[in-house]
Each structure stands twice: as structure tokens, then as C-alpha cells.
Amino acid sequence: MSEEKQNKDSGLQANTDSNNQSITDFGVSSIKNSRGNIQCLTVVGQIEGHMILPPQNKTTKYEHILPLLVAIEKDEETDGLIILLNTVGGDVEAGLAISEMVSGMKKPTVSLVLGGGHSIGVPLAVCAKHSFIVPSATMTIHPIRMSGTVIGVPQTYEYFNKMQERVVDFVVRNSSVKKKKFTELMMRTGEIANDVGSIILGKEAVDIGLIDEIGGIDEALRCLYKQIDEVKNKINKENMEGTKGGKGTDSRNNRKNSD
Asked: What does pTM read for this prediction?
């Protein structure tokens, strides 16, 4: 075996080991091919916020996700991000923080709801530039809950109301669902035992405009690669126009100098 082939095989093995470790530690994997380099981020279980959850809980830790999103956004070798969701919800502020980060990214992003995108998982499902949901997936829409001691004063109600508005405004801003319809689903009675809210299936989520399309991993990846191609074409066009503009300026300058 040649030394060049040995070095190549060693490099591939190192990349595979690094990728496997990233999946184990953070639920992130890197995929590279001729169409582009993408990062796959999984959001599963419960979104862990300021309080550490019991070790038997499967969690997504926001303090891991936020710096990863910054790295993905600023990595010149990464072309896009796909987010796989199967979450029961969790900490509201942590979920909103992750959602706002993804929503503010310039790079191509796609989300895919698998299994469930419940509670604060709803903003996470709609934060990408294009969202997908498999037909069998469900989404639970309900008002914000709070565990622990609650002080029964008007200020507590106002706090809950403002936090609820933050969630509703984000979802409406990042999807096609109407605020009136989303609020109606959130406050519906008689559908969830001992609670207020709604459980909607994949097709209904698309019909009301909450999610963009029904589809699986193939459709989600095709959409992401399409976004990547559009970004590359835009950059190439801007570079060509910049080059033409530069040449025109140089010609004018040359004429001025000759005069």
C-alpha cells in the first residue's frame, strides 16, 4: 500500500472517529459530498434550561447547542444545517433562545419533525428557513406551564401573559399560521386530558400553515441542497458583477489618466 493511500485512509478514519464522537457528545454530525457540506443537529427528549434534569432523562442542553450554532454559522466549510426534532418540550427560555439563534442564521437551514415537536418544540420546528414534518408526527400546542411555587398576584399573571406572547409572536413570525388560529388551538378545551390545548398531526400542521411541507429526510435534504445552490449562485453572480464594475472603474480611471 502506498504512503499516500495510507495517509488518506488514516485521514478518513480520523474524520469518522471525530464525527462519531460529536454524535455521542452533542448529537451533531457532519456530512460532506459534492453538493455541499452540511451539519446535522438533533434536538431530542427534553430541552434542558437553567435547572439540571435527572440523569435518566434524555435531554438537549442549550449551553451545548448555542455555541455549536455560532460555530456552524461562522464555519466557512459548512454550507447548511438540518435540524432533526423529536422533543417533548422543556424550558421555555432555553427553547426560545435556540429558536432565535437558528432563525437569525444566514446559512441555509431546514427542520424536520420526527415523532413529535411538542410544547416549546413548536418554535424549534418553525425556526428554520423551511420546515418539514413526517405524516405520523404530532405537535402539541398549549399555554405555558410553570412548576414550583407560584405567587398568586396580578404580577404573576402579567409575567405568564408576556412570556406566552413571546412564544406566539415567534411562531407567527416564522411560519404561515395565523395568530388567531394558533391561539385558538392553544386555548382549546376537551382535547387534552386535564389540560388546555391541541394535538395536531403532520398534515393538519401543514394545512394550518404551521409547517411548510409534509416530507421525510429525502425531501428535507433536497430542500437544503437547493438553498445551498441558490446561495452559491447568488455569490457567484455578485462576484461577477463586482468584477465587471471594477473593470469599468479601471477603464474610466485609465481614460482620465491619459487625458
From this structure: 0.81
